[in-house]
């Protein structure tokens, strides 16, 4: 079977995704048109409609690619099929998660979701929750539900709440400052490591002096 058309199709789709990401980063979501993306990618409007239906669909594909990249990094650093110590797992997960939070494209995607997510009865927002946030949460939830880990945690706190809380503790205060105040997250590797270390300590032990 000749697979060249399929390969060419995949390559064209990838060009749209890469061009779309670059233009969205430069101009923002509202100020980006499909014409801008076509000029950047060298493709056609018909192809964009074929692959993504519209600008929203292209943006959705970019968001989904973001999770794919995150999952790839997780799989490279953490074998989810093996047992892990609580602190070790949280440290590895948080470093990968926070590195992605610090990326400019994460800020852009989050900003777009805040402005566009509730439109059309929250269609884009719901898909973002289902395709990205829920999948990230599930990695943590599955870990917290392991018998050897769950016995170490407060039984009054569900794995779902623990996962949501941990992600929030790790990403703030930098994420919302970047999204709302247009501040780039400029932290060295050492500063990121210290941030993660402090957040894990807060998550596991609270803020009360011991």
Automatic annotation (TrEMBL):
InterPro entries from the UniProt entry: Homeodomain-like_sf, HTH-type_Tx_Regulator, HTH_TetR, TetR_C_Proteobacteria
Q: Which GO terms describe its molecular function?
A: DNA binding
UniProt entry tagged with the keyword DNA-binding: yes
Q: Which Pfam families match?
A: TetR_C_7, TetR_N
**Gene3D superfamilies in UniProt:** Homeodomain-like, Tetracycline Repressor, domain 2
Q: Where is the HTH tetR-type domain?
A: 10-70
Q: Which UniProt keywords apply?
A: DNA-binding
* Signal sequence, renumbered to the chain: none
Q: What is this protein called?
A: TetR/AcrR family transcriptional regulator
Source organism of the structure:
Campylobacter massiliensis
